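User: Show me a protein chain along with its predicted structure.
Assistant: Here is one chain, sequence first, then structure tokens.
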Amino acid sequence: MKSEEIAKIAGVSRSTVSRVVNNYSNVPDETREKVMKVIEAYNYMPNSFARTLAGKKSNTIGLFFIIEEGRYHEERIFQNDYFTLYLNLLVDMANAKDYFVLISIVSEEIEYAKISQAFLEKRIDGGIIIGTQKYTLKKIQAENIHSSIVLFDYELTEEEKYNYRDANITMINSNDEEAIEKAVDHLVQLGHKDIGFIRGIETSRSGKARNNAFQKAMQKFGLSIRDEYCFEGHFSVNEAYKNMKQKIDEGCLATAYISANDFMAIGAMDALKEANISVPDTISIIGFDKSLRANEVKPRLTTMAPDFHEMSRKAIEILHAKINGNDEIAAVVEFPVTFFERESCSRYD
């Protein structure tokens, strides 16, 4: 089927179909949705790779960032040094192996099709996906993709383990259980018993894993978990700030908090500072990810993180090996986490 036929069925011009396929922003949502329904119904795939000889590699890899909060969210990719760190490292390391890098940001549900198209049109030899959420593989229709995929921070559901058992997929994760246990142990050694947790996004692997690890570590040290000391932060500075303010107003505060990422820890610290509650003299806080901002705030945030440089190097190494026919690679590669003690924790007597 040609684009002219898609345009005729959808009742739009051929140029509109082209703008939708190439994800231009100047297409009304209603028109975009109408065209996409026709494209999906007829399994239309533009033949942009017709000029490429069959079997020839593109020497290009895809780097996809998933930010589901929306295109105009205040904390999207280029304001988030977690993502920009990966962006810089992965592009540099891919270039060192003579790959071009196609970079795309997925911020809305409909845009998952961009990832599928890049693979199916053979514009890329393999891809790396960062910022994954539950069911990412289903959303990109991974069952139709036979190229190599590396996922950061992902865990297969039981359904996915079966559906994608033959897929060429590797997941790169941090050892969150070990990391959170180190954080709880550090606070226990400082005399803290009332420890709270600032949760991330439960639909992400790390959000769920870090929350589960906190519960397990607290149980190991014989400490009770009080629901009123734990709250949602959604990996967002603003959400953590807002919810910590609510806890302050309720007069319901732990003596120490572990946050599932640095941004939420920083938001919580901002709320405490506004209320003239000292960190670390009154409340201790530990973050996660060793972001640049964690070293710039006052007091400097105690945090923990895997070696992002090594994770990025390994991702490119694995993808390069897979592209060149080496399928004997572990499905999951896990990296240890290092604890960085700074200034945001103190002894509780």
